[in-house]
Amino acid sequence: MSDATSSDTPAKRQLCRETLRELPDNIRLPRYDVSRLEAGILHFGCGAFHRAHQALVTQRAIEAEGRKGLRWGIASASLVRTNTPDALRPQQGLYTLLERSAKGNHVEVVGSLAEVVHAPSDEKGMAARLADPNTRIVTLTITDRGYFLDPSTHRLNVEDDAIKEDIGKERPATAIGSIVRGLELTRKAGHTPPVILCCDNLTSNGATLRQAVLDFAALESDGLSQWIEGNVQFPNTMVDRIAPSVSEHDIEETDRLLGMHDAAPVVAEPFLDWVIEDFDGPRPAWDKGGAKFVSDVEPYEIAKLRLLNGTHMLLAYVGSLAGYKTIAEAIADPLIKRLTERFMRSEQGPTVPVAHSQSEHYIDELLKRFENPAIHHEVGRVGRNGSLKLATRLLEPMRYNLAERRDTPCTIFAIAAWIRGFSMLDTSGTAIHIDDPNKDEIYRLCRATRENPLLRAETFLEYDEVFGEGFPRQEKVTGELAQAINNLHRYDLREVIAATLEETILGRRYPQQ
Fold it and tell me: What is the helix (H) or strand (E) element at residue 410, kind and residue range?
């Protein structure tokens, strides 16, 4: 009986080229023939952010150029997992983007992915794809960890096992190795190399990627390294859009809106920004899709890293301690919102190299974005890999403020909240799991310093993997961090936030006089 019932139930139709025209009229469709796309862009990292950001801007660019734009389809590659390629291949690369706001959803099908591949099992291989003369642009969203950088020098960590294993391999596993091998094939064939755009949150991301590629190439051939240095462009970029992880509820809602199944939808806020350093050579009409080409990306990058990403870290760590699940829930707490505004306007804002009025406008805009109740941006996801992110998002602006003799109580509080997360235990007495590549060493530092606030502050500030060389006015910073660590251990979180805002002392002052 169960078999008969199952066979009598029609299977839900799936999003693909054949079913596009069956979608409701309120769903925005690609305004070009997706079957005629050619892959002119190779992308490393087929994740949600890429599909909610670059792929959408590229869709707009293709639409703006008409038939000429069809050469700018994307071959998007997952470097490790098969999940996304497995979900997108039956859909011929099509997926739904839900732009969520308090006013409702804007729903669009994106068709700019001409091909979706799983790099490790791809018959052609990433190096050969890069060297294909039709590939004019290479983009990357592989997260900070995917570049294998030494945190102290921000250059390629040539001692990393993954990097050492890729040296000399015909099919490297890392993105850096694949780029170098692809450029080697390009050089041998005498083709013009593609322009390579890093779209991750790294300081001077194009220059940083360029140096990592040169470092890898030099391990194999000085001649190759010199050729890359003289012939390949690595423009800096700044990307900005909040794209939270997709939940089962999101998938169910997408299916309801479409009237068919989409196995790989993505969710994003309405806001989108992409700033690209101008470069030579052919490119999609990205500027018609909302991107900006500029001569200097640095002011945009610093503003975004410090005001958006830095504030995200504060909200993630403080919000987590307060028991909130999402950024929107955390910022809805009036006390945490006051802390956030003080942090942005008094500490991060003055370090951003733009006009004060421009900085204040961006802060106002960001606060509205953080408050978007339709975006469920989980604090755990936002705060992951903190040991890799603190330097650019909190510590660099803090150094600047200290050099200007400007107090940084909110930054100190954010760092203490980050440390506090590692020192907390669940009801079984086990350390709470935190996603961070250096978590084992951080847990060890917490155990070694027990609950001695001054020792813990001193120990963490000497942890070069995160903090690098000592801060200016080191004793003042150590004392303030010890005070914040002590307060978070001994007092109610709300009391500590209030004391931070009022710059009052709870308990004894550190260091002990």
Answer: helix 409-423
Q: What is the DSSP letter of 149?
A: B
128: burial class by Cβ within 10 Å (0-12, 13-18, 19+)?
middle
Q: Which residues of the chain have pLDDT under 70?
A: 1-11, 426-428, 470-473, 512-513
pLDDT, tens digit (0-9, with 9 covering 90-100), for 246-303: 999 999 999 999 999 999 999 999 999 999 999 999 999 999 999 999 999 999 999 9
pLDDT at 427: 66
Tell me: domain 26-294, CATH 3.40.50.300, correct?
A: no
In the numeric block, the tokens 């729903």 are attached to 107
Contact 197, 235 (CB under 8 A): yes
The strand pairing partners of 267, in sequence order, are 98
CATH of domain 298-502: 1.10.1040.10
Pairing mode, strands 291-294 and 113-118: unpaired
Largest CA distance in the chain: 81
Whether the Cβ atoms of residue 318 and residue 300 lie closer than 8 Å to each other: no
Query: For position 142, what pLDDT does the model report?
Result: 97
**Residues 6+ positions from 200 with CB-CB distance below 8 Å:** 140, 141, 142, 143, 144, 146, 147, 239
| Average pLDDT across the chain, whole number | 93
Residue with tokens 């799983």: 118
Q: Which residues contact 319 (CB under 8 A, 6 or more apart)?
A: 326, 327, 329, 330, 336, 379
Residue 81 main-chain phi, psi, to 5 deg = -80, 155
What pLDDT does residue 511 have?
A: 76
3-class SS letters over 319-382: HHHCCCCEHHHHHCCHHHHHHHHHHHHHHHHHHCCCCHHHHHHHHHHHHHHHCCCCCCCEHHHH
Q: Print burial letters for 166-184: b (CB count within 10 Å at least 16), e (below 16).
A: beeeeebbbbbbbbbbbbb
Cα dihedral 58, 60, 62, 64, rounded to 10, equals -140
Query: CA–CA separation, 104 vs 434, rounded Å?
Result: 33
Alpha helices by DSSP H, listed for 168-293, are 175-189, 205-220, 222-231, 248-258
Do 116 and 173 meet the contact criterion of CB atoms below 8 Å apart? no
CB 240 within 8 A of CB 304: yes
* pLDDT at residue number 281: 96
Instruction: Count CA atoms closer than 13 A to 110's CA, side-chain side.
Output: 29
Question: What ranges do the domains of the chain cover?
Answer: 26-294, 298-502
Cβ-based burial of 392 (10 A; exposed 0-12, middle 13-18, buried ≥19): buried
3-state SS assignment for residue 246? coil
Q: What is the pLDDT of residue 45?
A: 97
Q: How wide is the angle at C-alpha 329 spanned by C-alphas 106 and 100, nearest 5°?
A: 5
- At 12 the pLDDT is 75
Contact status, residue 397 vs residue 310, Cβ threshold 8 Å: yes
